[in-house]
Amino acid sequence: MTLARLLLAAAPAALFATTASAQIANPAYVGDFTLPTGLLLDGAEFGGISGLDFDRATGLYYAISDDRAERGPARLYTLKLAIDDAGIHSLDIVSTVEIKGAAGAIPRLGLDGESIRFDAARGSLYWSSERDEANVPGLFAIAPDGAFQRAFEVPAYYVTTADGTAGVYGNLGFEGLALSEDGASLYAMTENALAQDGPKATLEAGSRARLIRFDIASGQPAAEYLYETDPIFTPATADPPFNDNGVSEILALDADTFLVMERSFAGGVGNEINLYVAELAGATDIIGAATAPADAVPMSKTLVLTIGEGDFGLDIDNVEAMTFGPEIGGKRTLVIASDNNFSATQITQFVAFTVE
């Protein structure tokens, strides 16, 4: 990363948003580790890493694959990363765990796993499915061995209608999950707006994604807010000219503050990743509103870090996962990971930063 770009990314991070909220400061690159596409484990291809969470007690990472039960069973992995101040030295795939649904094995196209969070107090893993075969999003709890525990009550207005005028856009559902510090709430964020709330992100404008809070004890929705993404960062130069931008992951910093990762792609150019501190203070709670009011105030956000192609010497890929990892020299690590889409031209990449 050039000095100028680092200063642009870090400048708003020096004060970080408000005096009352949690803060993240001085992100510093530690290292990265890459696995090529095509690695087989027990006959199923490793990849599609779309969610990542760290268990501090065991040192294990839980990683969910977005394979739609096409290349193997619905699954998550437990991983170990050797990280110190000199970089990421190795990655061990400790186990593969089959994710079960209420009826047992999840059928082909029955899921699209996008995020995962570990609840040590309850011994549960929460995971989000962006869509099933009918494009219905879902949030679920499973045991660490993959056994189904329960489903959360997703409001009906998140379900895509037959004409596509309401509900989540295709492949733009629950992309991010965050577990509150007190363990009482689970937050889920859509990648882009619900269709009835507005359009997808474009080169000219962002999209009004939704953040919904669930009470874990009851499994019921308890609050709901808007988060406006950035526009797509640059036009595509390849043919076909595919490009997009949306929320790819979230982390809770405190009861009202989140770290939000937006991932933007432009064909022929590559990826750009932007990290924001986003706050609920002043945002309108729209819980139960099938269509978001036009005057609803979205969450505020402050830029923390931008990662573009070539920054830190990285060929940054399709980053979809994010978790806080172990401490290094008294600082927390932030680990992000990319979904290789099971493509020969993409990689599974883990990148670590320290943050204050």
β-strand percent reads over 45%
Low-confidence stretches: 1-19
Total domain count: 1
- The CATH topology is Tachylectin-2, Chain A
Head-to-tail CA distance between termini = 19 Å
CATH architecture: 5 Propeller
User: What is the strand tally?
Assistant: 24
SSE succession? HEEEEEEEEEEEEEEEEEEEEEEEE
Mean pLDDT: 93
The number of helical elements comes to: 1
State the secondary-structure class. mainly beta
Q: How much helix, percentage-wise, in residues?
A: under 10%
Q: Which descriptor suits the 3D outline?
A: globular
Query: Radius of gyration, Cα only, in angstroms?
Result: 19 Å
The biggest beta sheet, please?
4 strands, antiparallel
Describe the structure.
- By secondary structure, this protein is mostly beta strands.
- It has one domain: Tachylectin-2, Chain A (5 Propeller).
- It is 2% helix and 49% strand.
- It contains one helix and 24 strands.
- It has one helix at 3-10; strands spanning 28-36, 40-41, 44-45, 49-55, 60-65, 75-84, 87-98, 100-101, 104-105, 113-119, 124-129, 138-142, 148-151, 174-179, 185-193, 208-215, 220-228, 243-254, 257-266, 270-279, 300-308, 319-328, 331-338, 347-355.
- The strands form seven sheets. Strands 1-24-23-22 form a four-stranded antiparallel β-sheet, with no helix packed on it. The chain has a four-stranded antiparallel β-sheet with strand order 4-5-6-7, with no helix packed on it.
- Strand 4 (49-55) and strand 5 form a beta hairpin.
- The radius of gyration is 19 Å and the shape is globular.
- The two termini are 19 Å apart.
- The model is unreliable at 1-19 (pLDDT under 50).
